Structure formats: C-alpha cells, structure tokens
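**User:** You know discrete backbone vocabularies at least as well as I do. Would you mind producing a protein record, from residues through to fold? Write it directly below this note and I will take it from there.

**Assistant:**
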Amino acid sequence: MVENLQRADLNPIEEAEGYQRLSEEFNLTQQQMAEVVGKDRTTIANCMRLLGLPASVRRMVSDGSLTSGHARPLLALGREHVIVDLAKEIAAKGLSVREVERRVRESAGRPAKPADVAGTRDTRPAEVRRIEDHLRRHFGTDVSITLSDAAKGEIRISFYSADDFDRVIELFGTRPD
C-alpha cells in the first residue's frame, strides 16, 4: 500500500483515499503516515482534506479539471451547491488559485487583502511578500502580513474548521495544555 502511495501517477484524490485507507486499516496518525511514506505531515493533511469535497468536485480533481490547489479553498464555503457552482466556474473560466482564494474570502465576508482590491498595488516590500508566500505554503492555508509601520505589524493565519485549527497549531510544534 505504501508503495502504491509513492507512485508518481496517482491523482490527488487517489492519494487522499490511500492515506485514508492507511489511517483506517492500520490506525496510523498523519504523522505516522508521513514518516512511512516520506512526506511532510502537512502535505498528507492537505491531501486528505480533499476527501471533504462533494463527489462531483472530487471527480473534477481526479480527471484534472481542477487542481488540488484550486479545490482546497472551496472547503471553506461549506455549502455543497456553492462549492460545486464555483468549481464548475473555475474549470470553465480557468480561474487562478489566487482568484479562487479571493472569491472564497469574499463569500465568507472576510475583507480582501491589499493586493486583492481592484486598482491597488501591493506596496509592501518584496521580502514581506516572500515571507507571506513561504508561510502560506508552510501552513497550507491563507496567511496575510499587515505592516502598521517599519517595525510593527500583524501576521494572520486562517483556518476553516476545528481540524484545520488543530493542524495549524501542530505546525507551531507545541500544543497548549
């Protein structure tokens, strides 16, 4: 089973189903699976999150109409018909992952990030944008850095469910008692 998961030709849904099977049949945690297959635990967690998508959207990921990067933000929408409608629009219009993330934020009533506001340019230093992108990849979720002046600011890390919150907290390497 582990060898099958390491095949290069698996689509993201097949990979997620494989991890789910490992978890159920062998009672492995995501960390244990990560050690067995040689991947980062967050990679496995993000992959397994795809199983929470409606069946029609999972099929779109399986057949390549959507990437896993396009599909993951859809999980935050909650309502199946909204997820399916946006997934169809993504495939039809070829929307970028950033555009999908922006639309999901807007539909959840969260304010757009500075670079998302029409007609404005992100004027933050390139180093801040680079760090924000690094944190976004590390945490596997939306991260924003807001500067209030040269030496002060705020880092905001989004989560979309209780499980997602636990996953993000684990990435800090500590869990409060």
The domain at 1-52 is CATH 1.10.10.2830 (Arc Repressor Mutant, subunit A).
